[in-house]
Amino acid sequence: MGAVNLERAGWRPELVEAFTPYNADGLQPARVAAELNHIFRLWTAEGEILAEASGRLRHEAAGRHELPAVGDWVAFRPDASTALSASPRGRIEAILPRKSAFTRKVAGSETRQQVVAANIDTVFLVSSLDRDFNPRRVERYLLLAAQSGAHPVIVLNKTDLAGPHVDAAVDAIREVAQAAPIHAISAKTAAGLDTLAPYLGSGETVALLGSSGVGKSSIINALAGEDLLRTRSVRESDSRGRHTSTHRQMVRLPGGALLIDTPGMRELQLWDVGETLNQTFEDIDALAAGCRFRDCRHVSEPGCAVKAAAASGALPQARYDSFQKLQAEREAFEVRHDERALIEEKRRSKIMGKALRARIKEKGR
To answer: Which long-range contacts (C-beta less than 8 Å, at least 24 apart) are formed by 230-239?
Structure first.
């Protein structure tokens, strides 16, 4: 790739101001276009380069969420010794403030935060209309999308496989979507692809998120009009996908939009969703105004308007059950996070105490 027009890559006036402190130090701006094994592909005004995070940046990061992610704008220092080589390299010294970030808890038992994509304008939450169709999974993605600061859009792919059931599937998703737009499309036949055009303006960044096999890479290829990304078929036995994208990467469409493809996520654990749970379940939040107690958890408290609505059928039972499950998950996360914060604080205090004792000992010599 040759020189990159940074404005077409999403560079905006607020970023110019944020980058000012780094100009004097000889650093240059770039956008992270791909991440693979701690090596980052950067789009710069001079072209595409490979870079690593500096030792200082890695040392000062409190966790993976403070290291570069695809979509980030960074300040990097070119490696002068590779300037004329076929693969110029650089070192990332700082990350500019993120305007949005889609985050989740890392897979497994660790209580650590992971940034899936940063500085995104719109999130396409992709679900497929085959046998792996799952409104509850979409509900979970909506919760994290609300936390990200990006605009969520639900994309139901594979209408060519759904036949006469498309309308019923859209209705099922509408029950959980709240205000999020819903678009039913087929990447294979291109049906409905034109409905995504309003989100794909020049310089706009869109991240595609969804489980393996829902067709994220196929959608990008269809929008691009060429096979930019490798695709694979799903298993016929259960319509479950197999990982095609193995790392996060950003591609540019002919019209100038920037799409971030992400590996499919089977495990989507919440990270500090806070009040966004109530925002995602606005229907339940509205019903809660009629509860007898202001701090009602809608479990066993008397005079609970939410439980009453679920019992009468005014609130779908599946919706109520999903809310309870996510609420319990949020509370469990808060307990683990508080415990980890206490452990981290003790660790930092121990390090600082050790450094202070060493300094006092050195002065006493």
So the answer is: 234/130, 234/132, 238/131, 238/132, 239/128, 239/130, 239/131, 239/132, 239/213
How many CB atoms are closer than 10 A to CB 233? 9
Q: The whole model's pTM is what?
A: 0.73
HEC profile for the chain?
A: CCCCCCCCCCCCHHHHHHHHHHHCCCCEEEEEEEEECCEEEEEECCEEEEEEECHHHHHHCCCHHHCCCCCCEEEEEECHHHCCCCCCEEEEEEECCCCCEEEEECCCCCCCEEEEEECCCEEEEEEECCCCCCHHHHHHHHHHHHHHCCEEEEEEECHHHHHHHHHHHHHHHHHHHCCCCEEECCCCCCCCHHHHHHHCCCCCEEEEECCCCCCHHHHHHHHHCCCCCCCCCCCCCCCCCCCCCCCCEEEECCCCCEEEECCCCCCCECCCCCCHHHHHCHHHHHHHCCCCCCCCCCCCCCCCHHHHHHHHCCCCHHHHHHHHHHHHHHHHHHHHHHHHHHHHHHHHHHHHHHHHHHHHHHHCC
> Rounded to an integer, what distance in angstroms lies between the CA atom of residue 13 and that of residue 9?
13
Burial 306-336 (b: 16+ CB within 10 A, else e): bbebbeeeebeeebbebbbebbebbeebeee
Q: How far apart are CA 213 and CA 332, in angstroms?
A: 30
pLDDT digits (tens, 9 = 90+) for 168-194: 999 999 988 878 999 999 999 999 999
Name residue, tokens 């040392």. 59
pLDDT beyond 50 at 264 = yes
Render pLDDT for 232-260 as a digit per residue (tens, 0 to 9): 555 444 444 444 445 788 999 989 999 99
50 contact partners, CB below 8 Å, separation of at least 6: 39, 40, 41, 42, 87, 88, 89, 90
User: Residue 271 to residues 68, 111, 329, 334: CA-CA distances in angstroms?
Assistant: 18, 9, 10, 9
